[in-house]
Amino acid sequence: MTPPPTGRVVDLGCGEGEWLQELLLAHPEVSGVGVDHMLPATAAHRTVGRGLQDRVRWIETDASRWSDGQFDAVLCVGATHAFGGLHETLRAVGRHLVPGGQVLLGDSIWEAQPSEAALTALEVTPDALPDLAGLVTAVQSYGFEPSFAHVSTTAEWDDYQFSWSGSLVDWALKEATSAEDREEVLAVAREHRRQYLDGWRQQYGFVTLVLRDALRPAAE
Ligand SMILES: C[S@@+](CC[C@H](N)C(=O)[O-])C[C@H]1O[C@@H](n2cnc3c(N)ncnc32)[C@H](O)[C@@H]1O
C-alpha cells in the first residue's frame, strides 16, 4: 500500500496490530490508529520495541461504533464480523476513507464447494461465504477496485494449522503438570487438526486484497 508520506491510517479489528505496524515501519512519517474491542497488551509492547510508540494510538472499543474522521488507508483483516459481515464492513470502510484512499481487506471465501464435513466443522451454511469471484463482485459494488490480491495457499494454511495445534501438543507433552490437563489439551489439538484435515482443508480459504477507491479517485 502507498499512503501519502504524512498520511493517517487505521486498522479496524487490529488484534496485535501487525499489519498496521508493518505499514508504519515501511512509511516512516505515516501515523496510525489501531482499534480493537479486546486489544492485546502485545500490540503496545511491540510498538515500543519497534520505536513506533509516537506514531500509533491504540483504542480499545467496538470498531463498528467508533469514528475519528477520514483516513488515507483503512485496514480490516479477518475482522469483518466486527461489522456484521462483508457488506457492512465495505460500507463502514467507505465512511472512514478519504476520497481516493486505499483499503487492505482480508476475508474468508470458499475455494471449493464446501462438503458436509466442512460445513459441520465450521458450523456454517454454504451461503455464509462468497467464492473469490463473489467477493470481488461485492467489493466492486461498493465502488472499490482490487489493485492486488493474495489467496492464502494450502501450504500457508497447513503451516498455520499445524503450528496452532502443534503449540498445544508441545505444551501438553512438555509442560502439563497433570495427566488430566495433558489429555484435555491434547484432545483439543486432535479435534482441531481432525476438523481441518477431514473437514475444510482446501475448501475454506482466505484472501487479502488491496483496494482502491474507484468511485472517488484521487485528484490528479
Ligand atoms: C482474526 S482477528 C484479526 C486481527 C488482525 N486484524 C490480524 O489480521 O492479525 C479478529 C480481531 O477482530 C477483533 N474484533 C472482533 N469484533 C470486534 C469489534 N466489534 N470491534 C473491534 N474489534 C473487534 C477481535 O478482538 C480480533 O482481535
What attributes characterize this protein structure?
seven-stranded mixed sheet, single chain, binds S-adenosylmethionine, Rossmann fold, 220 residues, alpha/beta, globular, 7 helices
3D structure, described in words:
The structure is a single chain. The protein is an alpha/beta fold and 220 residues long. It folds into 2 domains: 8-152 and 204-213, Vaccinia Virus protein VP39 (Rossmann fold), CATH 3.40.50; 155-200. It has helices at 18-26, 41-49, 86-96, 116-122, 132-141, 154-174, 179-200; strands at residues 8-12, 31-36, 56-60, 71-77, 97-110, 144-151, 204-213. The protein has a 7-stranded mixed beta sheet, with helices on both faces. Helix 4 packs across helix 7 (179-200) and helix 6 (154-174) packs antiparallel against helix 7 (179-200). The longest helix is centred in the last third of the chain and has 22 residues, at 179-200. The structure holds S-adenosylmethionine. S-adenosylmethionine (SAM) binds at residues 13-15, 18-19, 35-38, 62-64, 77-79, 81-82. The site of S-adenosylmethionine has 17 residues, from helix 1 and strand 2.
